[in-house]
What we know:
With 260 residues, chain A is mainly alpha-helical. Chain A has helices spanning 2-35, 41-74, 85-124, 127-133, 138-177, 181-190, 194-220, 228-259. Chain A has one domain (40-259).
Amino acid sequence: MVETFGRHIRQSLGQLSYAAGFQLFLFKETFNFLGKRRIGLRVLILQILFTGVEALSIISLLSLGIGAVIIIQGAQLPDFLLGEQLYRILIIVIARELGPLLTAFVIIARSGSAITTELGNMVVSHEMEAYLSVGIHPVSQLGVPRLIGMSISMFLLTVYSNVFGLLGSLTVSSIITRVRLADHLSALFANFYLVDIVASIAKSFVFGIIIAATSVYYGFSVSGAITEVPVKTIRSIGVSIVLCVIADGIIILLTMLVTA
Amino acid sequence: MKFKFRHADKIVGLFTLVALLLLVIITVFAGVNNKWFTKKIYFTSLFTSADGLKVGMGVNLRGFQIGRVKNISLNADNRVDLDFYIYVTYHDRILHDSVLVLPSGLLGTSAALELYPGLVEGPPLPDGTFIPSTQTVEGKMLVKTRRVDRPAGGDAITDILTDLPEILDNLNETIVSIGNLTSSLETGIKGEGNDAFSSTVRNIEDISSGLDRSIRDVNDVTASLAALAVELEDPTGLVPTLLDPNGSLDTLLNDDNVLWDHILSILVQLEGAMAGVNSLSASLAGISPQMALTLDETIRSLKEAQKVMEGLQNNPLLKRGISKETVPENPGADMREDEF
Lengths: 260, 340
């Protein structure tokens, strides 16, 4: 039993070491990519197209719906729609928390799983060896554009998510309270602080990097069997969600420290 | 080739530009509404409690937001230090004697602080100046003495709400006074206190007991009168006998004032005696302080003598005490007493 436990620890440390090395290489290649941007630019554009543009409809709809639901549910509480607190609650819930996190979950389910599956299948079909045989590192060619594309898409989608979420909630609120939407928007902007915008942007970029790096890592970690692909995809989704929630908590703590 | 692949660059470009434009619009509008780009003048204030205060709450002047609360902290004296800023546009309104107020709303404290500018003409207060709040004595005095530009309330309810903190303070003081008075009354009624009320209660008790005695005396007099009435009703009693035309009283009244003159001469003699007694008592009263002094001195001397005696008794050199006094014998006397 001791031997099994020791072997398990050794394997875990080995995997952790490999993962750390892989991520370091991925980030190093990302900086290199920014220096010579023409390489893999097409992959980057297509990644933003798949991850960002194609997810816009579902993100917009989801954000509009959730924004409206917050107001409808909140209207049952006394004085919820009357005070200045309404705007702060909407900004904190939608712009700082729900917007980035909800977008991240959608991206994990849509694009993160797709990246892991795609890269896993490429490993199984020996396409990586083909890249290596012509002197192109597959991580640089396939991983880096996906990391950058996903981070940018995540940031842009978070902006859309926040806008649609706040618009949805304020529209429903103006219908219920019969206050003009313009007045609502004016009050909303008056309660929008710089820390809200910075926290939202920071979360979107961090979540994008986490999802992309995890998905790429698990895609490349398929060793040869086609049955590994769904297993790695499921693990990639789980790990991405956990890491995003942890990162969210850390950013909240940092924000509190900064604003205290 | 599918449309989206053919125009991928344009679609992604549009997607990115619109998002960035939205972000810029949000940032600019938030910045304009929050006056991020306006210069701010910082001031400090002091409150007794942080209830109703929060970072970021507005500072209003007659309903216009002219600044915000920057920081709230508890100082070493358990008071609340408040840092706030005023937008430079409104700096010229912050004059000497300005006061900061936390208004009371219908549902607790208001969402914004109110600033009452001072009425003193002059330059505006410089950066970092202390502006008192109405939770401090200085601020209360400025408002009470009407040295601030305080807006008149729109209606009675507004006026009451504006004065509510002061009214509550006064009410608290009144309640405390009533509490003290109640405890004083309790101790006073028990007669345990040392204040005027307690002594008055004790005096009333004395007066009551005196009254009881007087009522008993009155009762005695009433009983005597009743007995006299009974005597008067009795035809063989003492009073009718005295009042009889042939009785003693008639004899006394019809003796040509012989008895009366005699009584009068006795009274004159008594008056003379009384005058003598009076002069004697006056002279006694005159010498009584001297007598008292003499007595005091005698007592003091006796005490000193007692101390001396005690000292002598305790002196180790005189342990044997005072030698016994011997009475010298008188042989002559003995001889005379001898019987021959």
